[in-house]
Write a structure and sequence with these properties.
heterodimer, A: 13 helices, 1% strand, B: 280 residues, mainly alpha, 11 helices, 75% helix
Chain lengths: 286, 280
C-alpha cells in the first residue's frame, strides 16, 4: 500500500510536466519580450509599420495585418475543403473507402512544412506569376499553401464532431423522407455546428503559427499594399528570418513579436476549447 | 423560379463535395510522386554515407541523418515516459476533478503553441538560461515538450479503450493497482500508445523552425548530445533557400518523405493491430 501511494505520487509529478512546460514557455517568452513592448510604447509597437530594428524602430503593424490576412485566406480554402471532406467521409463514402482515406489525411498532416513550402515555390508561385501577374511570392501563394496544410486539422476534428451527432437524429430525418443531402445540411451540420466551428478556429491557430512554409512562399516584404498578389511578411516569418543574426534590442523585439503571436494563438485556442467543451457538455446531457 | 428537386440538389452537392475530396487526395499524391520522381534518381549510397562538401553543394547527408535521429529519437525518449505517465495518472490514479481539468487544459494549450514559439523558448531557456547552447540536447528537450500533448492524448485514448472487465479481473486475482496497470492495462494499450509515439517521432523529424533555433545548423557529425547538429528538414530548407543545389535538395526531400512514409505506415499498422484486438 505504501509503495502504491509512492507510485501515485511519482505519476502525479510526471503529469505536471505539460503544465510546467506551458508555464515556463509563457514566463520566458514574456520575460524576454514584454519589456521592449513597454519601452517602445504600445502605439509605436502595435500600431506602426516602421520596422527598422537596427535604428530602434520596432513597429509590427504590417506583420500583424499580414499574418491575419494570410490566415483568413488559408481558412477560406481550409474550411471549404476540410469540411467538404469531413462530410464526404462521414456521410457519402462507403466505410471501406473511408478507412483508406483516413490514413491518407494523416499522411497529409505528416509531410514536413518545408516540403509544402518548396512545393509552393515550384508549382503555385510560378502559376500565380504567369496567370495573375505580380512577383508570384505573395499573400495568395501563402494562403493556398497554408490552406492545404491546415486541411487535416479541420477535416479530422470536423469528422469527430459529425460522428458525435446521435445516430437516431440521422435515422429520424431519413425516415421523414428527407434526402441524405437535406439531412446533412439541415440537420447534421447544425447539430455538429459548434464542433465544426472549433475545428475551423483551431485550423486558424495552425495557419497563424506556421512558419517555414510561409517564409518560402510569402515573399516577406514589409510593405502593406492590400493586394493579395503582393508579398507579405507574417509575425512568424519575421522571427525566423531575423533570429539568426539579431542581438540586443533587435532580439528582444523578435521575442516581443513572439509575445504578440502567443497572445493571438492563446485567444484562438481558448475560444476553440470553450466551444468544443460546451458542445461536449450539451451532448452529455441530452 | 422553379424549385430544384431535392434529388437533383443532392446529386449536385455530392458531386461538388467528392471533387473537393479528390482534389485533396490528388494534391497529396502529386506532392509525394513529384518529390520521389525528382529525388530518387539523385539518391545513391555515397549520398547517404558521406559528409557534405562545400556547404552541401556536393557530397552527402550522413551527418544530417545521424543528427536528425539523435534529436528526434532523444525527444521521443524524453517525452514518452512523461506522456504515458501523465496518461496513466489521469486515467487510473485519479477521478475527474479540478486537477485533471487543469492538467488537460495545459496539454491542450501546449498542443496549440506554434513551433517557432517553442524555438524561441528553447533558445532562451535551454540554450542560454541552462547553458546548453545550440545542441542536440537543447533541440531534443524543446521537441519533447512539443510532442508531449500528442503522446498524452493518444496514450489516454488507448488506456481508456482497454475493457473495464480486464481491470476487475486483475483486482479479483489480488493484484495491486500498480500491478494491474503494468501487467494488464499497459500491455493491452501498447499498440495504441505506440501509434502516438511513432507519429510523434515523425513530427519531430519533420520539424524545422524549432530545431533551427535550438539544435543549430552545424554541418559536421555530432559527437555527443552537447554538439550542435543540423537536421534533414533544416538542411533541405537551407539548400533551397540559399540556392545551393537543386539536385541535392530533391534527394534530401526524397529521404525525408521516405522516412515519413515508413513511420506513417508503421503507425497505421500498429493502429490496425490495436483495433483488431478489440482494443477500441
Amino acid at each position: 500500500m505504501k509503495q502504491d501511494r509512492f507510485i501515485a505520487f511519482i505519476l502525479f509529478l510526471l503529469s505536471l510536466s505539460a503544465l510546467s512546460g506551458l508555464t515556463l514557455i509563457t514566463v520566458f517568452i514574456f520575460k524576454e519580450g514584454l519589456p521592449l513592448i513597454l519601452n517602445t510604447g504600445v502605439r509605436d509597437f502595435f500600431f506602426s509599420s516602421n520596422w527598422e530594428p537596427t535604428e530602434g524602430q520596432f513597429g509590427i503593424l504590417s506583420m500583424i495585418v499580414g499574418s491575419l490576412a494570410v490566415t483568413l485566406g488559408a481558412m477560406t480554402i481550409g474550411a471549404v475543403f476540410g469540411l467538404g471532406m469531413a462530410i464526404v467521409l462521414t456521410q457519402f463514402c462507403p466505410p471501406k473507402l473511408a478507412a483508406v482515406m483516413k490514413p491518407l489525411i494523416e499522411l497529409l498532416a505528416g509531410i514536413p512544412s518545408v516540403v509544402y513550402g518548396f512545393m509552393g515555390v515550384v508549382t503555385i508561385v510560378p502559376m500565380i506569376r504567369t496567370f495573375l501577374g505580380g512577383p508570384g511570392l505573395s499573400m495568395l501563394a501563402a494562403s493556398i499553401v497554408l490552406g492545404i496544410m491546415v486541411l487535416p486539422t479541420v477535416t479530422s476534428i470536423s469528422i469527430d464532431a459529425l460522428k458525435a451527432v446521435p445516430r437516431a437524429y440521422w435515422e429520424g430525418s431519413l425516415a421523414l423522407g428527407a434526402t441524405k443531402w437535406q439531412t446533412t445540411h439541415m440537420l447534421m451540420l447544425k447539430a455538429a455546428g459548434s464542433g465544426i466551428l472549433a475545428a475551423i478556429i483551431l485550423g486558424m491557430g495552425r495557419a497563424l503559427g506556421e512558419t517555414m512554409a510561409v517564409i518560402m512562399v510569402a515573399g516577406n516584404a514589409l510593405e502593406m499594399s492590400g493586394n493579395p498578389l503582393d508579398p507579405v511578411r507574417t509575425l512568424t516569418s519575421n522571427i525566423a528570418l531575423e533570429m539568426g543574426y539579431a542581438t540586443g534590442h533587435h532580439r528582444e523585439a523578435l521575442f516581443a513579436t513572439g509575445v504578440t503571436l502567443f497572445v493571438f494563438i492563446m485567444i484562438f485556442n481558448t475560444i476553440a476549447l470553450v466551444i468544443s467543451r460546451r458542445s461536449a457538455g450539451k451532448r452529455g446531457r441530452s | 423560379m422553379r424549385r430544384i428537386s431535392p434529388i437533383v440538389m443532392q446529386r449536385i452537392a455530392v458531386t461538388f463535395l467528392w471533387s473537393l475530396t479528390m482534389i485533396t487526395i490528388g494534391i497529396l499524391l502529386y506532392i509525394i510522386c513529384f518529390i520521389l520522381l525528382k529525388g530518387l534518381p539523385q539518391l545513391s549510397w555515397e549520398f547517404l554515407s558521406q559528409s557534405p562538401k562545400s556547404m552541401g553543394r556536393g557530397g552527402g547527408i550522413f551527418p544530417m541523418i545521424v543528427g536528425t535521429f539523435m534529436v528526434a529519437g532523444l525527444a521521443v525518449l524524453i517525452a514518452a515516459p512523461l506522456g504515458v505517465g501523465t496518461a496513466v495518472f489521469l486515467t487510473e490514479y485519479t477521478r475527474e476533478n479540478k486537477l485533471t481539468f487543469i492538467i488537460r487544459f495545459g496539454a491542450d494549450c501546449l498542443a496549440g503553441i506554434p513551433s517557432i514559439i517553442y524555438g524561441l523558448f528553447g533558445f532562451v531557456f535551454f540554450g542560454i538560461y541552462l547553458g546548453m547552447g545550440l545542441s542536440v540536447l537543447s533541440g531534443a528537450l524543446t521537441l519533447a515538450l512539443m510532442v508531449l500533448p500528442t503522446i498524452i492524448r493518444t496514450a489516454e485514448e488507448a488506456i481508456l479503450s482497454v475493457p473495464y472487465a480486464y481491470r476487475e479481473a486483475s483486482y479479483g486475482l489480488g493484484s495491486t493497482r500498480w500491478q494491474m496497470v503494468t501487467r494488464v492495462v499497459l500491455p493491452s494499450a501498447l499498440p495504441g500508445i505506440g501509434t502516438g509515439i511513432v507519429l510523434s517521432l515523425g513530427r519531430s523529424i519533420s520539424e524545422t523552425a524549432a530545431v533551427m533555433l535550438t539544435a543549430g545548423s552545424a554541418l559536421r557529425l555530432p559527437r555527443s548530445i552537447f554538439d550542435s547538429s543540423r537536421t534533414l528538414a533544416l538542411h533541405f530548407y537551407i539548400l533551397v533557400r540559399e540556392g545551393l543545389s537543386v539536385d541535392k535538395a530533391y534527394a534530401t526531400a526524397a529521404v525525408l518523405i521516405i522516412i515519413i512514409l515508413i513511420l506513417n505506415g508503421l503507425a497505421y499498422w500498429l493502429m490496425k493491430r490495436f483495433v483488431g484486438r478489440g482494443g477500441s
